[in-house]
Amino acid sequence: MTTYAPIQPRPILSKPLTANSVQSSSIFLVP
């Protein structure tokens, strides 16, 4: 659920790259 945190400030980038944004958001949550 926390994956939506980094996506909220970047809704424009998450739309065209939904699949990529999900993976990127997971990376930011790991560290």
What structural keywords apply?
single chain, 31 residues, 3 helices, 0% strand
Walk me through this protein's architecture.
By secondary structure, this protein is an all-alpha fold. It contains three helices and no strands.
Layout of strands and helices, then pairs:
Blueprint: H1 4-7, H2 11-14, H3 18-29
How would you summarize this macromolecular structure in one to three sentences?
Helix content is 65%, strand content 0%.
| Largest pleated sheet | none
Tell me the structural class: mainly alpha
Oligomer: single chain
* Structure annotation, total helices: 3
Percent helix, as a range, is 55-70%
Instruction: Give the radius of gyration.
Output: 8 Å
Strand composition percent? under 5%
Broad shape:
globular
Mean pLDDT: 55
List low-confidence stretches: none
User: From N to C, what is the helix and strand string?
Assistant: HHH
By DSSP, the count of extended strands is 0
**Distance between the ends:** 17 Å
